[in-house]
Amino acid sequence: MTAVSSGPTTSSAASAPTWTERSTHLSWLDEHTRSLLRFGCGVVAPGGGASYLDEDGRPDLRFGVLTWITCRTVHVYALGTMLGIPGCRPVAQGALAGLLGALRDAEHGGWFHALDDRGEPERTAGKSCYDHAFVLLATSSATLAGLPGAREVLDEACAVFLERFWDDGHGLARDSWDAEFSVLDPYRGLNGNMHAVEAMLAVADATGDSAWRDRAARVCGLVVRLADEHDGRLPEHFDSDWVPDLELNADQPGDQFKPFGATVGHGLEWSRLLLQTEGALGLLAPATFHATAVELFDRAVADGWAADGADGFVYTTDWSGRPVVRDRMHWVVAEGIAAADALHRRTGRAWYAELYATWWDHADARVIDHERGSWHHQLDEKNRPTGGVWPGKPDLYHAVQATLLPRTPLGTSIARAVHDGQVSA
Asked: Where are the domains of the chain?
């Protein structure tokens, strides 16, 4: 098992260049970005949109065409387009066609959750903040990449989000509606708001409208309060008045989108997003964002890393920090890598750089599939590939971002940084 320190190092190695300061590591990140994008190049579904990918990067037609996977595909291949990687533009445009076409609800507005295996809209799932946040992210990136139709969809997505999902009174996003936007679910969730923060920062950078940064900051304010009230472990589920429901899904703790307990990876992801929001706001950023980013990161590492004797992050814990779902999800180590780098840049503490290197070593040894490509999306508690929660290798979003976030400015969205040529190489 790889040892992880609990504080800053005082060895002479601390003064040596960190991985992200070495051109050799930056070159490795660049090549890994390219290999990931090669893996998913067959993702475009007939008629537009993106397919769910299997272990070999082939479309798994059982899952139909999902909006969130389509959006993640638009996003990463728009980034590839702006990076000048041949073959990315047709994939981004093909996936975007799904948002322009069959996934878009021309009658009631917004975007369906999915198309089934016959290409028909899936109406029973309703319309979610999660999906629409990714529409915002995808079309922001596609707009900067200059893809035809992207700006029109971005403008429409902004209007739908503000009308249907943004609750200005609470300064938070509502979670979900029925397919007709007639019945609002009383459930409120932190996961949709987390991705909304990322999306709102991206919209601000794509459009120049700073009001989106202000909205992101308001959501971050709730995270600051929750972290303070729950010892660095974030409740995920709430009622319509934003009262936490700490026992939701205790009987099905491995739920894909609403797991029981504290989600370790979200502590890491929020840590990174707080620092990105702080950087985007500049001198207007509350001092609490940095302090909470440190608190969330430290709690996630203490609770989640090698918590049961094997390397890797457990998926969830209870409210005392005991592991509940011990499987390792690929996105958690990807977010850990990004958060460790962000905190190292923000604080200069060598401990974060050491964790960054440790987690890339772990990803290389256990998570990256060197034979078939991409990353195993789920490992069991002994770091063996499994698929109970996430079968196959559905999409590239978290892995690609792990290769780009360490190479882009902390206060700038990835797409804006790539567009402006601010990617370290």
From this structure: 41-185, 228-425
CATH top-level class for 41-185?
Answer: mainly alpha
Residue with tokens 């009001």, as numbered in its chain = 211
Per-residue pLDDT tens digits for 366-422: 999 999 999 999 999 999 999 988 899 999 999 999 999 999 999 999 999 999 999
pLDDT in tens, 266-309: 999 999 999 999 999 999 999 999 999 999 999 999 999 999 99
Active-site option among 25, 195, 362, 398: 398
Determine which one of 75, 266, 376, 419 is catalytic.
Answer: 266
Stated pTM of the model: 0.96
C-alpha torsion 109→115→413→398, nearest 10: 150
CATH number of 228-425, picked from 1.50.10.10, 3.40.50.2000, 1.10.510.10, 3.90.1150.10: 1.50.10.10
Tell me the three-class secondary structure of 191-250, residue by residue: HHHHHHHHHHHHHHHHHCCCHHHHHHHHHHHHHHHHHHHCCCCCCCEECCCCCECCCCCC
Residue 266 designated active-site: yes
**Is 113 labeled as catalytic in the residue annotation?**
no
